[in-house]
Structures are given as structure tokens and as C-alpha cells.
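Weekly sync, protein design subgroup
Attendees: M.S., D.O., the rotation student, P.L. (late)

Item 1: inverse folding check
M.S. brought a backbone from last month's batch and wanted to see whether the design step gives back something sensible before we order anything. D.O. pointed out we never logged the input encoding, so this time it goes straight into the notes. C-alpha cells as presented (350 positions):
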């Protein structure tokens, strides 16, 4: 009756539950799914419209602007020369776009409301104070000038790709506040798409006039030889047949334009520096020089920034009638060297 041994086999089967099944489940729960969601969200970000920097709009066509901001826009104003028309979209505020009348490409970008934080180019913002603008460091040049004539503080930044940011302040304490106006442009693009300069060289073919030691051209030649470097050109500002000479103080687009004229007693006279960023706006043979560019000034500003030549000096006119605008660009100037001076004296300049 040895039946007791069969009862010992049952407990041995109860030891079958093993820890292998317990360790398998945790390894299955470790899943990669949580890491998939963060990678999906960045790809769902909308494409950036408008551009990362305001300068990206330069050179765009009107159709490209419509794709970004919609088809509804309003005309802000047209330059008196008719070369540029400024428009604004409701969705582009505070930006205004200066379009070439030739091909409707963006030549200028203007901000009259500079209080908003708009990225212009690199680290430059529209609402920077003058102190913040001047403190910037990088691969660009900064030019800071004050005009005694119109009381404007002009700070321009020129980048290697030809882009220029021009900040304008009117009044005191420019270092502690944002500018009244900011403009972006590329001088080479403006010149190409506006059809070139309106400067005129209508010189007499009679060489005796140019070789005369008292001729305007000899007087201008003496000034240029004294300067030794820079760029110059001849234009007609007032009503007579004797040209004025414009001289650029360097190669930077931010340089103002020096104007020289011949007085009634036959002397060559330095008038003053005008314009901004190597560009002079004037009305040919109507005796007007305009200190503003790319904007429609109010009456007070227009009176401050409009000048005429009077006996070798710049004075404010009493008549503010509208005149056609001519443009002289720094890029159209002739290098000051003996070859070009001789060409001027012979009447062969340009």
C-alpha cells in the first residue's frame, strides 16, 4: 500500500509559474511612440509669410506681393518724377512698397510708423533708438551724419550685398528714440530699374571756352585737383546755361552730395551738402533742390527741405509749386582723375 508517493508529484507542478513572463511585459511597454509626436509638430508650422527680413521684398514683383498680402492695396503716392509709385497692403502695415513705374518691381521699402518691432535686415529693427543702431557690430558699414540745413540726423547702414537701411530722425535726442522714417533700398537696383540717371552734360563744343582759365570748367577742375579723390558730375540746377558741379565725398552710398555753383561774378562757390545716401533730387533748370527722397512730405517738412540757389547760397524759396524731379546717383559719377578732368575741359565728359 505504498500510494503516498503520488501526492508528492502535484506540488512540483505548482512551481511552473516562472518570472520569465513577468519580465517580458515591461519590455513590451517600452515604446518609441512618445518621441514621434515632438518631431511631427515642427513640420506642421505654417510657412513664413512675410519674409524673415524686410529686405527680402526688394526686387519682388507686384504679383509676388499680391501672393503674400492679397490683391487689395492702396496707392500711397507717386514721386513727382513718376519713376516710383508707393503702395500699401492692409496686411503689410507698416510697410509701404515703392514700385518701379518701369516694371513694377520693389525698389524701396518705407516705414513711417517705426514704433513697431519690424526686423529689417539681420539684427536691425525698425523701432531701435539711435544709440542701439550705432551700437550694432557686424559685416557692414555705418554712416552717421547731421544736416544743418534740414535738421535731420541720418544714419545709414550699408551691407556687402548692396542693401542700405536709412534711418531718419528730425528733432533732438535721436539716440534715445526711434526714427521718424526708415527706408530700405539697393542703389544699383534703383538705378537699373528706374532707367538710369537724369543727369545732363550739355557742354559746349568750343574748346576755347573750356581752356579759358576763367571758365567754369577750369574753376571746377581746380577744385577737383585740390580734392584729389572722389566722384563728380555736372548737372543743371538753376535756369542759366552754366552747369553746377556735384561732388561725392567717398565711395559709401551713405555720403551726401556736395553742390558747387558759379556766382554772378564768375567765382566757383561751394553751396552745401544735400540729399542722402549718394543721391540728389533736384528739378533741372527750375532751381530747386529737394532734401527728401522717396516720400511725400507734409507742408512744414517740404518748406524745410526745399532749396534754391541764390548768389552761391542755398535759400528756401517762397514759391512751392510742383516741379518735375531729376535724380543724380553716386554710381553715375566720374572718378576724380586727370583723364576725366581733361575730358570735362574738352567738353567730352560722358
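Designed sequence read out in the meeting:
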Amino acid at each position: 500500500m505504498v500510494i503516498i508517493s503520488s501526492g508528492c508529484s502535484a506540488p512540483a507542478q505548482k512551481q511552473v509559474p516562472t518570472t520569465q513572463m513577468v519580465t517580458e511585459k515591461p519590455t513590451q511597454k517600452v515604446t518609441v511612440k512618445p518621441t514621434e509626436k515632438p518631431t511631427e509638430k515642427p513640420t506642421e508650422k505654417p510657412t513664413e509669410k512675410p519674409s524673415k527680413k524686410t529686405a527680402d521684398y526688394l526686387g519682388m514683383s507686384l504679383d509676388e506681393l499680391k501672393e503674400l498680402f492679397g490683391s487689395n492695396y492702396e496707392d500711397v503716392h507717386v514721386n513727382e518724377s513718376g519713376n516710383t509709385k508707393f503702395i500699401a497692403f492692409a496686411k503689410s502695415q507698416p510697410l509701404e512698397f515703392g514700385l518701379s513705374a518701369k516694371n513694377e518691381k520693389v525698389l524701396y521699402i518705407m516705414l513711417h510708423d517705426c514704433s513697431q518691432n519690424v526686423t529689417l535686415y539681420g539684427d536691425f529693427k525698425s523701432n531701435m533708438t539711435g544709440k542701439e543702431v550705432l551700437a550694432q557690430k557686424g559685416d557692414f558699414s555705418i554712416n552717421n551724419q547731421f544736416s544743418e540745413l534740414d535738421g535731420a540726423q541720418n544714419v545709414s547702414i550699408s551691407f556687402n550685398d548692396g542693401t542700405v537701411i536709412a534711418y531718419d530722425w528730425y528733432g533732438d535726442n535721436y539716440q534715445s528714440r526711434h526714427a521718424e522714417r526708415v527706408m530700405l533700398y539697393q542703389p544699383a537696383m534703383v538705378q537699373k530699374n528706374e532707367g538710369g540717371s537724369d543727369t545732363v552734360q550739355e557742354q559746349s563744343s568750343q574748346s576755347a571756352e573750356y581752356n579759358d582759365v576763367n571758365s567754369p570748367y577750369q574753376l571746377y577742375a581746380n577744385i577737383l585737383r585740390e580734392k584729389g579723390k572722389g566722384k563728380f558730375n555736372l548737372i543743371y540746377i538753376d535756369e542759366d546755361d552754366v552747369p553746377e558741379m556735384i561732388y561725392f565725398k567717398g565711395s559709401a552710398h551713405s555720403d551726401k552730395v556736395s553742390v558747387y555753383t558759379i556766382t554772378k561774378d564768375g567765382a566757383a562757390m561751394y553751396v552745401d551738402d544735400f540729399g542722402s545716401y549718394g543721391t540728389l533730387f533736384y528739378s533741372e533748370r527750375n532751381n530747386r533742390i529737394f532734401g527728401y527722397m522717396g516720400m511725400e512730405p507734409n507742408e512744414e517738412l517740404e518748406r524745410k527741405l526745399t532749396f534754391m540757389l541764390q548768389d552761391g547760397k542755398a535759400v528756401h524759396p517762397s514759391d512751392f509749386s510742383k516741379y518735375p524731379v531729376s535724380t543724380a546717383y553716386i554710381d553715375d559719377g566720374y572718378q576724380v582723375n586727370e583723364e576725366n578732368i581733361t575730358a570735362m575741359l574738352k567738353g567730352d565728359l560722358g
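Discussion: Residues 120 and 159 are 12 Å apart (CA to CA). The chain has ten helices and 20 strands.
Action: P.L. to compare against the previous round before Friday.
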